[in-house]
Amino acid sequence: MTEPKEKYFLSFNKEEIFKNLLAIEGHFRNIAESSHSDQGFLSCIVKHLADAEGHADEAISHSLTVEGEEQSRKWAALRDQLREFRRKLQAQPISMEEGIKQTRQIRRFFEGFNREYDISQCKACGNVEEILAKLKIPKTSIAELEEETAHRIIAHLSSKYNVPKPKLKLLDNCPTEPTEFGMFQARSGEPEIVLCRGSADAHKIGHEFAHYLQFLEKKPLSEQEAEQFALKEVAKPIYAEASHFSSGENRMPLTWKDTGFIVGGQHIGKALTKAFEMIDGYVGKAAAPVQERPSTWINIGGGLALIVIPRISKRISPTLDYLMTVIGGYMTTKVWDYAEESMAVAPAARFVAAPAPTPPTPTAPTPIAPAAMGIKYQVTA
Question: Which of 41, 64, 79, 152 has its CB 3.0 to 4.6 Å from that of 72, i.e. a possible disulfide?
Answer without folding.
Answer: 64
